[in-house]
């Protein structure tokens, strides 16, 4: 669908437009409304999103998933107290195809110049029961990954027994389940049947069918999208 291609090709579109020294024209197409913010406040020059933090009481399994399976590298574990630790993981950013290998100390040294890191904080004696967004809608929705080949990624994750919430090229159906919870449209959102049905019908506008959704060991949803729009797709 053209909307889906627009979504996927947005960056290409903007880059192509800039070749002709003009900004994307118009307000979008009614679904995608382009931002028209002017320049950011001068005081924010150099600001960047470096990491996001997940609370866990399941650190070893989380490190196994993000590290051994998804391929993020350990920057460090900081043992702040015997019970409290802070762990940083992230992709080596010297090259995504593996030739840009960086050691843990090298990554740690570059930490404040890296983007997309995950910080896992664990209070290992906590009496709390932490609710993942797939189990109970909350303010955290999902982590978004880009992969070069989503079909290969799906096969790879299945081989490693990663729970798949939604397969590639499968539309979302129904109003309950882990994906619905993580998107805030599940049972905790209330009945609202007509509004939910409208959303299910509209899902191809954002290419939801084409996304692969899996769960990490704590039940956080990981959304996986292919870098370039799939060419052989039915959409
Ligand atoms: C928390 O970590 C400390 C130090 O490693 C360990 O002695 C303790 O058994 C751990 N507690 C739990 C509940 O895992
Ligand atoms: C791997 O990444 C490096 C660094 O970005 C690049 O120079 C090289 O051409 C890439 N190799 C392949 C096979 O894509």
From TrEMBL:
One of its GO terms (molecular function) is dioxygenase activity. Residues 1-21 form the signal peptide. InterPro entries: Glyas_Bleomycin-R_OHBP_Dase (IPR029068), Glyas_Fos-R_dOase_dom (IPR004360), VOC_core (IPR037523). The keyword Glycoprotein does not apply. PROSITE patterns: PROKAR_LIPOPROTEIN, VOC. Keywords: Dioxygenase, Oxidoreductase, Signal. Residues 48-227 form the VOC domain. Pfam families: Glyoxalase (PF00903). This is Glyoxalase/Bleomycin resistance protein/Dihydroxybiphenyl dioxygenase.
């Amino acid at each position: 669908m053209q909307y889906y291609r627009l979504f996927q090709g947005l960056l290409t579109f903007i880059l192509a437009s800039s070749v002709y020294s003009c900004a994307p024209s118009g307000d979008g197409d009614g679904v995608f409304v382009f931002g028209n913010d002017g320049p950011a406040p001068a005081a924010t020059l150099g600001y960047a999103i470096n990491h996001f933090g997940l609370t866990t009481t399941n650190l070893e399994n989380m490190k196994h998933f993000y590290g051994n399976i998804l391929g993020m590298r350990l920057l460090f574990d900081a043992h702040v107290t015997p019970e409290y630790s802070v762990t940083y993981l992230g992709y080596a950013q010297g090259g995504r195809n593996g030739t840009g290998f960086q050691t843990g100390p090298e990554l740690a040294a570059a930490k404040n110049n890296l983007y997309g890191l995950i910080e896992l904080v664990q209070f290992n004696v906590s009496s709390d029961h932490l609710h993942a967004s797939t189990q109970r809608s909350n303010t955290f929705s999902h982590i978004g990954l880009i992969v070069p080949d989503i079909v290969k990624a799906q096969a790879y994750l299945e081989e490693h027994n990663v729970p798949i919430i939604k397969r590639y090229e499968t539309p979302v159906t129904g109003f309950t389940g882990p994906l619905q919870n993580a998107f805030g449209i599940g049972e905790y959102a209330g009945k609202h049947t007509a509004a939910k049905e409208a959303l299910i019908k509209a899902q191809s506008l954002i290419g939801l069918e084409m996304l692969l959704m899996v769960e990490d060991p704590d039940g956080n949803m990981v959304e996986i999208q292919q870098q370039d729009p799939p060419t052989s797709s039915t959409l």
